[in-house]
Amino acid sequence: MNKTILLAMALMSFNSVADDADCSAFYELSENIMDARQSGVPMPKMLEMLDEYKHVTTPIVLSAYKMSRYRTERIKKEVVEEFATKWMLLCIESSKNK
Length: 98
Fold this sequence. Notes:
- There is one protein chain.
- The protein is mainly alpha-helical.
- Residues 16-20 have low confidence and may be disordered.
- The longest helix is centred in the C-terminal third of the chain and has 24 residues, at 73-96.
- Helix 1 (3-20) runs antiparallel to helix 2 (24-38), helix 2 packs across helix 4 (54-65) and helix 2 (24-38) runs antiparallel to helix 5 (73-96).
- The termini are far apart.
- The protein is built from 5 helices and no strands.
């Protein structure tokens, strides 16, 4: 599936985070951002695609692009999952502190 479509789907589900603290949307969003990063999407294109939501996505994008790209699919998958889990944990922890 096209990375742009996946990001759009994740952003649509992101709206539920503000409404009901559904941190799984953060997981999906950060998963798609890191997957695109591992697939070679350049940072300027990523920021451009997410410009409308930059107040939320910029920290995730910057965090993703600070990490290396990997060649093997197995390692890419592990990196994507760990990255998404990190952002979901941050969401859960911040919602508990409110």
